[in-house]
């Protein structure tokens, strides 16, 4: 192909050059090879056309002799070796330079003699392979290599202590992990081919991940397998640990496990602390997790609830107590216990799961059935029949979108009043994400869109304030103020967040600016400033008390730091009477929530003070 430049001369277009791979350490070592330093003679031809490549595992026997035929060392038992062939991964394992260059030239089954000068074996300067004891590294030697086999392998551990060769691919991509329950046919041989664990005849071996019920290397390898897969897992001694499956056989340096993964049961520690456990009883349809109702959806389930007492008392069963009809609910709206919903979101359609749930994720924070005692751990047997995800706004008119927004915002407001602040925040944030794809067509739509988006940002700020995340609350307010610096409600909400975080000057600036913009907010602003003044005075009083006498002592004297006198509660009661957050025309009164643990020291006490006096109270718009 040619192009014409401005002078009508043809120039050849050069094809784009491929980026060169960075030079590896092995490539640098190969540059040391000089003619005559490595010679090869084929003793027995191999079969096939393919040769080992980088990333392949090569298994070979090696016998080293002097030029006059004296055996120096060998892997073969007839020459004094253990009879166990060597395994290396090209490009991963450390090899002497002669084998690094020579093995990739061989065919499977081939036997070749490599004549190496010292610099091609252990006499190489800075050789990365340790020299065996009493090895004649300065001599020219013969290396007889029999390439038994080579194949692609998966490297499980960085030290090459566990490798896997796939014999037959599995049926899906999901793999077991702790604390899944696994069934597999397993047999084992030592590196020299001796059987040390025959394959069981009656049933596959059953074990639980993470319980050390099989050797560590076998568990690591099985954790990369999918259902139906057959593989050989090569395990070196450091990963060949004691287990109920088999004892450790002395003198065995490595074990080759032949594994067929028959089945595994998905068991999920949902909270990560062993309290909320979901165990799959029957597989569902589709692939996990792509086909699970991870997003907010309308779900239909049958379930049976049991108490974890000796009698396993059934307290509810949709098939009997609901006229045989399944429970239908929308996720993300707090309509079922938190633990119930968390587990259903991880189910596939048609799946049946057994869920064991602690009381704080069951009915202690949810409307409790009359026959469930307070503080009870429960078990649910859940069948997810099907689910429908919420429709997106594709094809919706602006009016239809805003009507849907009002419904979602209404759900968020209900959740806020029920003190489910995380769920409420998720509803508001979902709409804000979708708003990135909404484009009003005229000024009237633009104004409505902007006002609604601002209210949603302020509702998110209110949720963060309730959750004690003051910095995030301030950031949410800033999203409104960046577009409209005189937004009164945003200034008020940000001022409350600044006050709660102890940034009194920032809070005062927001309250004063608010009053200068909107004279009708004067009463609310004065009340906010009065509360701010009380907070400053109280902080000063506490600081003075804590460090009482610290600055009154003469040099060399030590003053004791004061202690808390328990006055927080009384102050909190007094300030709780101040109803300041009334810009929206109403106050959503809810119980206070506990803020996250503050930092230690004086800041810790200040944060504790702010929480106790109710500074994280706010309204929903």
UniProtKB/TrEMBL annotation:
What PROSITE patterns does UniProt report for this protein, alphabetically?
Answer: FKBP_PPIASE, TPR
In residue numbers, the region (Disordered) covers 1-36, 558-601
Keywords assigned: Isomerase, Repeat, Rotamase, TPR repeat
Source species of the chain: Nicotiana attenuata
Q: What top-tier enzyme class does this entry carry?
A: isomerase
Ranges annotated as biased composition (Basic and acidic residues): 10-28
Give the catalysed reaction(s), semicolon-separated: [protein]-peptidylproline (omega=180) = [protein]-peptidylproline (omega=0)
Q: Which EC number applies? A: 5.2.1.8
Pfam families, from UniProt?
FKBP_C (PF00254), TPR_16 (PF13432)
> Which parts are the TPR repeats?
454-487, 488-521
What Gene Ontology terms describe what this protein does at the molecular function level?
peptidyl-prolyl cis-trans isomerase activity
Q: Which PANTHER family match?
A: PEPTIDYLPROLYL ISOMERASE
Domain of life according to the entry:
Eukaryota
**The protein's name in its UniProt record:** peptidylprolyl isomerase
Phylogenetic lineage: Eukaryota, Viridiplantae, Streptophyta, Embryophyta, Tracheophyta
Q: Which InterPro entries match?
A: FKBP4/5/8-like, PPIase_dom_sf, PPIase_FKBP_dom, TPR-like_helical_dom_sf, TPR_rpt
Q: Please give the family membership noted in the entry.
A: Belongs to the FKBP-type PPIase family.
Does the keyword section mention ATP-binding?
A: no
Could you tell me which SMART domains the record lists for this protein?
A: TPR
Q: Where is the PPIase FKBP-type domain?
A: 55-151, 179-265, 296-388
**Which SUPFAM superfamilies does the UniProt record give?**
FKBP-like (SSF54534), TPR-like (SSF48452)
């Amino acid at each position: 192909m040619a192009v014409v430049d401005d002078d009508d001369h043809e120039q050849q277009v050069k094809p784009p050059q491929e980026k060169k791979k960075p030079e590896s350490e092995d490539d640098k070592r190969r540059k040391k090879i000089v003619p005559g330093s490595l010679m090869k003679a084929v003793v027995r031809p191999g079969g096939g056309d393919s040769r080992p490549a980088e990333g392949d595992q090569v298994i070979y026997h090696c016998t080293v002799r002097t030029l006059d035929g004296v055996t120096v060392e060998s892997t073969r038992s007839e020459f004094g070796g253990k009879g166990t062939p060597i395994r290396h991964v090209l490009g991963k394992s450390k090899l002497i330079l002669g084998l690094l260059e020579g093995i990739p030239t061989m065919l499977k089954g081939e036997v070749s003699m490599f004549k190496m000068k010292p610099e091609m074996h252990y006499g190489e300067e800075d050789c990365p392979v340790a020299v065996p004891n009493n090895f004649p590294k300065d001599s020219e030697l013969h290396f007889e290599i029999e390439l038994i086999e080579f194949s692609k392998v998966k490297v499980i551990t960085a030290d090459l202590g566990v490798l896997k060769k796939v014999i037959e691919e599995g049926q899906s991509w999901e793999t077991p992990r702790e604390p899944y329950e696994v069934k597999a046919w397993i047999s084992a041989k030592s590196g020299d081919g001796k059987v040390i664990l025959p394959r069981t005849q009656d049933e596959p071996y059953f074990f639980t991940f993470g319980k050390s019920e099989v050797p560590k290397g076998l568990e690591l390898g099985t954790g990369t397998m999918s259902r139906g897969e057959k593989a050989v897992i090569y395990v070196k001694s450091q990963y060949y640990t004691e287990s109920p499956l088999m004892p450790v056989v002395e003198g065995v340096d490595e074990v080759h496990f032949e594994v067929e993964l028959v089945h595994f049961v998905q068991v999920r520690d949902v909270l990560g602390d062993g309290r909320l456990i979901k165990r799959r009883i029957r597989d569902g349809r589709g692939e996990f997790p792509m086909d699970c109702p991870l997003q907010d959806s309308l779900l239909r389930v049958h379930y049976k609830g049991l108490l974890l007492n000796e009698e396993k008392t059934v307290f509810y069963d949709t098939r009997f107590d609901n006229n045989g009809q399944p429970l239908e609910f929308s996720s993300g709206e707090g309509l079922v216990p938190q633990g119930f919903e968390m587990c259903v979101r991880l189910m596939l359609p048609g799946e049946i799961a057994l869920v064991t749930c602690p009381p704080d994720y069951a009915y202690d924070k949810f409307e409790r059935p009359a026959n469930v005692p307070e503080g009870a751990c429960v078990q649910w047997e859940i069948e997810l029949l099907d689910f429908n995800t919420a429709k997106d706004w594709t094809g919706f008119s602006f009016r239809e979108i805003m009507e849907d927004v009002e419904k979602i915002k209404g759900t968020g407001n209900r959740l806020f009043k029920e003190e489910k602040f995380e769920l409420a925040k998720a509803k508001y944030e979902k709409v804000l994400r979708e708003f990135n794809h909404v484009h009003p067509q005229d000024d009237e739509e633009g104004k409505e869109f902007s006002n609604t988006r601002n209210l949603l940002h302020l509702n998110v700020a209110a949720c963060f304030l309730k959750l004690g995340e003051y910095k995030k609350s301030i950031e949410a307010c800033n999203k409104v103020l960046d577009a409209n610096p005189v937004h009164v409600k945003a200034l008020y909400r940000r001022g409350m967040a600044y006050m709660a975080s102890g940034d009194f000057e920032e809070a005062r600036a927001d309250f004063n600016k608010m009053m200068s913009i909107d004279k009708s907010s004067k009463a609310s602003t004065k009340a906010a400033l009065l509360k701010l003044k009380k907070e400053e005075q109280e902080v000063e009083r506490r600081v003075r008390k804590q460090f009482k006498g610290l600055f009154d002592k003469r040099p060399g004297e030590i003053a004791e730091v004061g202690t808390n006198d328990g006055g927080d509660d009384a102050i909190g009661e007094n300030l709780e009477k101040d109803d300041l957050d009334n810009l929206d025309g109403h106050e959503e009164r809810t119980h206070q929530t506990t803020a996250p643990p503050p930092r230690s020291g004086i800041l810790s006490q200040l944060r504790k003070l702010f929480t106790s006096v109710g500074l994280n109270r706010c309204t929903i718009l």
